[in-house]
Amino acid sequence: MEPTRTVPTRSRGRWLILLGILISALTLSGIAASPAVADEGGTDDPAAEEEYEYFFTGNVQFEGEALEGVLITVEGNGFDAETETDADGRWTIGVPEKAEYEVTLDQDTLPEGVVVLEGQDTVTAEFGLTKRKAVNFFLGEGQRVTVNYFDQVVQRVVSGLNFGLLLALAAIGLSLIFGTTGLSNFAHAELITFGALMVLTFGVNLAWPLWLAIIVALVLSAALGWTLDAALWKPLRRRGVGLIQLMIVSIGLSLALRYTYQFFYGGSTSQLPGATLPSDIRFGAVALSWVDLVSMGVSIVVLLAVAFFLLRTRIGKATRAVSDNAPLASASGIDVDRVIRIVWVLGALLAGLAGILWAYFRPGVSWDMGFQILLLVFAAVTLGGLGTAFGALVGSLIVGLFVEVSTLWLPSDMKYVGALVILIVVLLFRPQGILGRRERIG
Amino acid sequence: MDWGAIFGNAAVELISPTTAAYALAALGLAIHFGFTGLLNFGQAGFMLLGAYGYAIPALKLGWPWWACLLTSLLASVIFALILGIPTLRLRADYLAIVTIAAAEVLRLTFTTNEFAPVTGSANGLSEYQRDLLTLNPLPDGRYGFGPWVFSDRAWFFLILGWIVVILAALLTWLLMRSPWGRVIKGIREDEDAVRALGKNVYSYKMQSLILGGLFGTVAGIIFVMPRAVVPSYFQPTLTFFIYAILLLGGAATILGPILGSIVFWVLLSFFSGFIARAVEAGWLPFMTQVQAGQLRFILVGVAIMLIVVFMPQGILGNKKELAFVK
């Protein structure tokens, strides 16, 4: 079956047409005149109409013209039946009991250029005091774009790449922190949220120009990373607090920060400027907005910069050395604490940037937005191999692609489930992750 | 300020079924984390399986209470096996990530509209207690004294809950002084040493994961008995609260989780009651009622951090028996 997508046109008013008519003499005479048509297409029982005392009726018209041959189905209470509208656009379906039913208008049987308003092609109907119930569908002018399966896959893949790249920004920071300090930082989610909240504060609440707000947000994110390390993590390392304890401290910190955000920003979702731009740039089958393009571009540039930093600069090499073996790095004259401080600043900066991009991807800024993707970030890091920066990138792309592409066959409210299941399955077969090394897994 | 109401509400938490449920879930976590050193962050998932494993057969199949209970326990064992087989051979933090992920998978699966006819989706399920209530020996009506005046139904669930908690604590106590318990504690201290003694560490860890998970499952049933079940109860935050309780009471103790749960809920109720009324009375003009409600979560987060750093052994724990794996 070919999936279809409904795109109602926005500009012109939707003609709310129609509908159902009701308990008027007109309808009654209509039924009387054409009982066969009304129940054509068939219930299990061809004589349904005479047998059942309860009826759903309606009249499907668009701009005053009756639409013939539109398929209507009724389902519920263990009963289902379908019918097509007659030449006058009328339909009637008899049902056995006075109960609640779902009445659906099959959009594919509507003429070209006509759609049911989004999400209203199925109506839940219940009988009132009478034995007849009119069911109305609101039709509008619109385009029903039938996207073929391949094009849908391409669209999802591009979207998944975008999501994967922004996940990678957060994941690399998490992975670097894990690599250098051994800490599984659950509060990384709050670093993600922080970036978006700061843009909201400066760009929307204080109405600064967006570019300035983003720069300020990134600087503040980096400052938060510095502060967290200086005020919390470094003293704890000094005390020699164990890794598991540190992990639980990060959970406590995550909880405290998250609800502090809610305390100040409330539980609602706000939009950043430009978050709702239409997707009007087309590359073949793929429709993107400017924000999507900029987001992917920024992610790629920043990821390349991080790769350059890790591979080519002295500090980057020192970071990898500390990741590999901190005591040895320390013995070779590397200031481990300084490297860790830099990693915290970098990690928080990347997380803040990921948060801003995530606010545009969702779209929306809310107090728990980081926590919503924390597990995906963890899944990405674990998939790639705990503590390997490039593994985090590979893992993120896989998770991002999987989440988006899986919406083709999974309901969208379960799209994160697939990625988390993949995580569990991968650990079963390759526990060190895709780029990880065996000795790390203990 | 109505101090009577604040203290009264806090006193109710002292014996409420919710306190019992959290105590039992924390006791399960004590077996995982305190005694075996397993970092299970999916206790909410075990509780969810308990709640839905009971509610779904009761509502959709009309099974008696004991069959529903068995369904829950069976689901819990299967869940523990799925979690344990890939991760128990790996380092501790892998189990943490996988358990929290698996618990989220469960919660999302029970939230999705796809399975709404069975799970009730985000609206959840209710009225599954009927068969268990036929066992209620208490006469109809409301009785009690002081702040503890409940209906016969509430008393029934409360008494049942605490009986289960006491039995579970006894069982844990017996187990932990048995040879099995000594092996378990040995695994926490030094896995390799236990392996060198010829014990199958993997199998012991799995048994511990299953047992603690079963406690969590029964806790889930106790938790949803006085109310309706919705999937949003079982967010990762629930697991974090249970960790807070466990760490507060003492991770490697039997009575710690129970005491921790009581102290946690009484203090939390007292604190939020006090703040809410202080806001009402205009003592905290910068805060709204809604914000006052969120303050408790911030407090729990800060409390977790402080306890872990400054009092890792908890109220009842022994500082020598440090409850943290290296």
From TrEMBL, chain B:
Cell compartment(s), UniProt: Cell membrane
Keyword tags: Cell membrane, Membrane, Transmembrane, Transmembrane helix
Pfam families associated with the record: BPD_transp_2
Annotated membrane topology: Multi-pass membrane protein
Keyword ATP-binding belongs to the record: no
Predominant place of localization: membrane
Positions of transmembrane segments: 6-31, 63-85, 154-175, 209-229, 241-274, 295-316
CDD domains on file: TM_PBP1_LivM_like (cd06581)
Record protein name field: Branched-chain amino acid ABC transporter permease
Native organism: Agromyces indicus
Taxonomic classification: Bacteria, Bacillati, Actinomycetota, Actinomycetes, Micrococcales
